[in-house]
Amino acid sequence: MKAVEWQRIAMPHLQPKASWAFEGPIAYRLPFKYVLRGFLAEGSSLDKGAYVWRITVPLFIPSAFVVLDYSERISRGKFYSSDVAPLRGQLAIEGERTADEDTALEYLASLEMRSLDRKRAEVKAYACLMVGRIDQARILFQQIRSGIVSASWEGELLLRCALIERLCVDSGAQAATEQLAAWSSETAAALKLTAN
Hints:
This protein is α+β, with helices and mostly antiparallel strands. The chain has two domains: 3-99, no CATH class; 104-190, no CATH class. The chain has helices spanning 3-10, 85-96, 101-109, 118-130, 134-145, 152-171, 173-190, and strands at 20-23, 26-29, 35-43, 50-58, 72-73. Helix 4 packs antiparallel against helix 5 (134-145). The model has no long low-confidence stretch (mean pLDDT 89).
């Protein structure tokens, strides 16, 4: 499905219209700072259908692509532009769930941790820091440091966490939050998103 077609289908059902923007297959809430909230139409090269995801993307993790790890696919199957009726009501209902960035941060700070998943722990630690659960963030940073580093991305993750933890200790949570805001801006720029 082409981005223009997705925008034509989605826009009439996203309220209020002034608080939404589009970039390719992403319909996203405005304003944002740390968390991208909205919808993604995931197309396929095999046909013109698309799956629709309600997205929650932590922008404070540097990335050049949308990570769907904290998102939910809301379409029961692929939808096609010729049959969008079932999707319309769903967009309106699910759009309400994307309204508040503070709620999205709370969701990320409350992620369940069954085992050490460094990527998930990093997201949760930063979100905890931003919602004021500094002690919980420190515990998560300790857990992230434990274990063996077996991939280059883990080394990068450990360096980011060490920087944020050091900023918290040396300069306070505000300095760490400012660094997270800078990473969020970089990720938003890489995704070609406009915050206002």
